[in-house]
Known about the structure:
2 strands
Amino acid sequence: MLDALALFVTIVEAGSLSAAAERLDMPAATVTRRLQALERELGCRLLHRSARRLQPTAEGLQYYEQCRPLIHALGQATR
């Protein structure tokens, strides 16, 4: 679950699935599948996706704001 949270935070911060895939050094299709799995697990859509835009839903923004400090703190602790 922690990997999924970090993935979601990276997607939001990168601004696109392809930019997140590049940052994470993984295929864009993998990023998309993992995001979809997280959305299924949570039972809500986290991002509005289109060919031109990626924007958090209300639930996605709330989830991001709660997860971001945790993910960044864990990254700092690991370093």
